[in-house]
C-alpha cells in the first residue's frame, strides 16, 4: 500500500495546485501603430471638468441634465441591464459552492392487485457540489464579474452621452429661438420694403419688375420665419424627449439666454490613455476580458475531468398491510467525469469561445482607434469654429456700424427709408451669420467634450 500511496501523491498535489489556479484576464495594451501624440494642434485652456456644463453659463442646463438622468428611458434600460449583469455574476458565484435542498414526500397506493395498499412518507436533505478543480467555474464567475463591470461602465457612458445630447438640444433650441426673432424682424423690414416698392410702382417711379422682386423677397422672408418656427419646435420636442418631459411644460422653463462662448479645452491625455477617460472604451475592455475568461473556462471545462459529490440524508416510514417500517435514509455518490470522444463537439465549443474573444479584442481596438479619430475631428472642428466666429463677429460689427450711421443719416433727412431698411436687413443677415457661428462653436465644444469622455475618469479602486 505504501508504494501505491507514494505514486498517488504527485497526482493529489497536482490536483490541489490546479484547484488553487484561476484563469486571469488579459491586461489592456495600446493597439499597435496607435499615434503617440495628437496630430491636430491643442486647443489650449483648462482641463475638462466632470461638471463641464457649469462652464457654459446656461442656468437651465444643469436642471435639464439632472432631469434627464432621473427620468430618461434610455438610462432606465441601462440600469436594467446592469441589474441583470449583477444578478448573473451572483448566480455564477453561487455555482461555486455546494447546493442543498430539502424534500418531504408522502404516498399511498396499490402497486399490484394481490398486494394490500401501502403508505410511505419521508423527508430528506440533499446536497450536491461540483469541485472546480481546474478553474473553469471560477473563470465563468470572473467573466460574469467583468460583464457586470462593463454594464456599469456602459451606464456611465450613457449618462455622459445624455448630458452632451441635452446640451446640444438646448443650445440648438436657443439658436433657433434667436434666429426666429431675427427672421421676424427681417420679415417686417422686407414687408416694409415691398409696400414701399409697390407704392412707387403705382406712382410710376419704379418698374413693375423691381416691385415684383421686392414681393418675392418678402415672401422668402416669410418662408424663412416659418422655417425657424419649425426648427425651434423640433428642437423643443427633441429636448423634451431627452429629459422625458412634456414640451408644453418644458418651454416656459427655458427662459431666454444668449448662446455661450465656451472656453478652449486642453487635451491633456494622449491617445494611449483615452482608455482611462472614456467609459465606452473601458466597457469594451471589460467585454474583451470577459470573453477571454470565458474562452479559458470553456477550454478547461471541455477537456478537464470533473469531480462532483452528491449526498442525501433523511428519515422514512413505510406501511404495508399490518407492518410498519421506519428508519434513516442516506446516500453518498461521488462522480468523476472524464471527457473521451465526441466527434469534435468540445473542440468546436473551444474554437467558438476563442473566436468570440478575438472578436471582442478587435472590437476594443476598433473603438480605441475610433475614439482617437473623434478627438482629432473635434479639435479640427473647434479650431475652424473659433476662426469662423471671430470672422462673423467682425463682420457683424462692421454692418452694425453701417446701420447705426444710416439711422443717423435717415433721422437727419439725408438717407431714404428704403436705403435704411436695406442696411438694417444687411445687419440682420450679419447677426444671423454670427448666431450660426456661435452655435457652431458651441457644437464643436460639445463634440470635444464627448470625444474626451464627458469628464469621466475610471476609479481604480472599484
From TrEMBL:
<comment type="similarity">
    <text>Belongs to the outer membrane factor (OMF) (TC 1.B.17) family.</text>
</comment>
<dbReference type="InterPro" id="IPR003423">
    <property type="entry name" value="OMP_efflux"/>
</dbReference>
<feature type="compositionally biased region" description="Polar residues">
    <location>
        <begin position="98"/>
        <end position="110"/>
    </location>
</feature>
<protein>
    <submittedName>
        <fullName>Outer membrane protein TolC</fullName>
    </submittedName>
</protein>
<dbReference type="InterPro" id="IPR010131">
    <property type="entry name" value="MdtP/NodT-like"/>
</dbReference>
<feature type="signal peptide">
    <location>
        <begin position="1"/>
        <end position="25"/>
    </location>
</feature>
<feature type="region of interest" description="Disordered">
    <location>
        <begin position="94"/>
        <end position="119"/>
    </location>
</feature>
<keyword id="KW-0732">Signal</keyword>
<dbReference type="Pfam" id="PF02321">
    <property type="entry name" value="OEP"/>
</dbReference>
Amino acid at each position: 500500500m505504501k508504494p501505491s500511496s507514494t505514486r498517488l501523491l504527485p497526482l493529489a498535489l497536482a490536483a490541489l495546485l490546479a484547484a488553487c489556479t484561476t484563469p486571469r484576464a488579459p491586461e489592456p495594451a495600446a493597439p499597435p501603430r496607435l499615434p503617440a501624440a495628437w496630430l491636430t494642434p491643442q486647443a489650449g485652456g483648462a482641463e475638462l471638468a466632470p461638471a463641464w456644463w457649469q462652464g457654459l453659463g446656461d442656468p437651465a442646463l444643469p436642471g435639464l441634465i439632472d432631469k434627464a438622468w432621473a427620468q430618461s428611458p434610455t438610462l432606465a434600460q441601462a440600469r436594467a441591464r446592469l441589474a441583470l449583469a449583477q444578478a448573473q455574476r451572483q448566480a455564477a458565484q453561487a455555482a461555486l459552492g455546494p447546493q442543498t435542498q430539502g424534500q418531504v414526500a408522502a404516498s399511498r397506493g396499490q402497486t399490484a392487485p394481490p398486494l394490500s395498499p401501502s403508505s410511505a412518507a419521508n423527508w430528506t436533505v440533499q446536497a450536491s457540489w461540483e469541485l472546480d478543480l481546474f478553474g473553469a467555474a471560477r473563470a465563468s464567475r470572473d467573466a460574469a464579474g467583468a460583464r457586470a463591470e462593463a454594464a456599469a461602465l456602459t451606464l456611465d457612458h450613457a449618462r455622459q452621452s445624455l448630458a452632451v445630447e441635452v446640451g446640444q438640444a438646448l443650445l440648438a433650441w436657443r439658436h433657433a429661438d434667436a434666429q426666429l426673432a431675427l427672421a421676424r424682424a427681417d420679415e417686417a423690414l422686407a414687408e416694409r420694403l415691398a409696400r414701399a416698392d409697390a407704392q412707387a410702382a403705382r406712382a410710376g417711379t419704379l418698374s413693375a419688375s423691381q416691385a415684383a422682386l421686392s414681393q418675392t423677397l418678402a415672401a422668402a422672408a416669410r418662408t424663412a420665419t416659418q422655417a425657424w418656427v419649425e426648427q425651434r419646435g423640433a428642437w423643443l420636442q427633441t429636448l423634451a424627449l431627452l429629459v422625458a418631459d412634456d414640451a408644453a411644460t418644458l418651454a416656459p422653463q427655458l427662459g431666454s439666454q444668449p448662446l455661450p462662448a465656451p472656453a478652449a479645452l486642453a487635451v491633456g491625455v494622449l491617445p494611449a490613455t483615452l482608455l482611462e477617460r472614456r467609459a465606452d472604451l473601458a466597457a469594451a475592455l471589460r467585454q474583451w476580458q470577459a470573453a477571454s475568461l470565458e474562452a479559458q473556462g470553456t477550454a478547461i471545462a471541455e477537456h478537464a475531468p470533473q469531480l462532483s459529490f452528491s449526498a442525501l440524508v433523511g428519515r422514512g416510514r413505510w406501511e404495508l398491510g399490518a407492518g410498519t417500517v421506519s428508519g434513516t435514509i442516506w446516500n453518498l455518490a461521488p462522480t468523476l467525469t472524464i471527457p473521451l470522444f465526441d466527434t469534435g463537439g468540445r473542440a468546436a465549443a473551444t474554437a467558438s469561445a476563442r473566436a468570440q474573444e478575438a472578436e471582442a479584442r478587435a472590437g476594443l481596438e476598433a473603438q480605441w482607434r475610433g475614439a482617437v479619430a473623434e478627438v482629432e475631428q473635434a479639435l479640427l472642428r473647434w479650431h475652424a469654429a473659433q476662426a469662423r466666429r471671430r470672422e462673423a463677429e467682425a463682420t457683424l460689427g462692421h454692418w452694425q456700424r453701417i446701420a447705426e450711421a444710416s439711422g443717423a443719416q435717415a433721422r437727419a433727412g439725408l438717407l431714404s427709408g428704403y436705403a435704411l431698411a436695406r442696411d438694417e436687413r444687411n445687419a440682420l443677415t450679419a447677426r444671423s451669420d454670427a448666431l450660426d457661428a456661435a452655435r457652431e462653436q458651441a457644437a464643436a465644444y460639445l463634440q470635444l467634450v464627448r470625444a474626451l469622455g464627458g469628464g469621466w475618469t475610471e476609479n481604480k479602486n472599484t
